[in-house]
Amino acid sequence: MTKAEVINEIHNKTGIEKIIVQETVETFFTTVQNKLAEGNNLYFRGFGSFILKRRAKKVARNISANEQITIPAHNIPKFKPAKVFIEKIKNSVPVK
Fold it and tell me: What is the C-alpha separation between 57 and 54, in angstroms, rounded?
């Protein structure tokens, strides 16, 4: 499902104008990105958490140049679904 399809779904279910729904969705995504960039985690009860995970510095190899490179320590974003969310998915989607 794409962002446009999500916007259409919300528009159809609520009757709110598409442009307002689009601005709201865009603002939500921007807020999540900005807060994670500031080092904050976000917690949504019953849905899940957007958290930062720290990756340690490591040495890797550039195979084409046959040399070692150092990848510095850095943060990556991670989504951890809530238990309620996990249970709902487990019980509703057939295994393919």
Answer: 10
Q: Which residue from 28, 21, 16 is spatially nearest to 5, judged by alpha carbons?
A: 21
Q: Calculate the CA dihedral of residues 44, 82, 30, 72 and round it to 10 degrees.
A: 120
Q: How far apart are CA 49 and CA 32, in angstroms?
A: 11
Structure tokens at 25: 């969705």
Distance between CA atoms of residues 67 and 90, nearest Å:
45
Domains and CATH numbers, the chain: 3-92 (4.10.520.10)
pLDDT tens-place string over residues 17-41? 999 999 999 999 999 999 999 999 9
Hunting for tokens 């809530």 — which residue is that? 82
